[in-house]
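Hello Y.,

Per our agreement to keep a running log of every chain we model this quarter, I'm adding this entry. I've kept the format consistent with earlier entries: sequence first, then predicted structure.
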Amino acid sequence: MKGGSIIRPAEPEDMQGWLQVARDVRHIMRHPTMDTDPEFLDYAARKLAQEDAVCAFDPTAGRYAGFVGFSRHFNRITWVGVAEAYRRRGLGRALLAAALAQLDTANPITVDTYREDYPPGLPARRLYFSMGFT
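Predicted structure for the entry above:
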């Protein structure tokens, strides 16, 4: 457990939790309708069905703390979000590590992140760089 949260593979039943986290990070990702956007809903449902996502669930609070979507096919991290109440506790690092464990570390793993001149994205950039991304 990290910060009281259990990190585990995400399942289709976790969709509403993912949307809860998406609502919490939509301003950072500059996507104000992310949790209702049909494209995002399709993406999240596909990742859950393909077992290409991990989540953090806080059983004490009964809520989801974060999600990571990834692609085994493209060896890529495709979405990371941590609910505001759970930030700065190492949860993003733990989620990312759980996702990376599902990918082929013998080959390059890619992730898109924010530009360095976008202040809300700096914590994500720092996390990726601290975990070896360049």
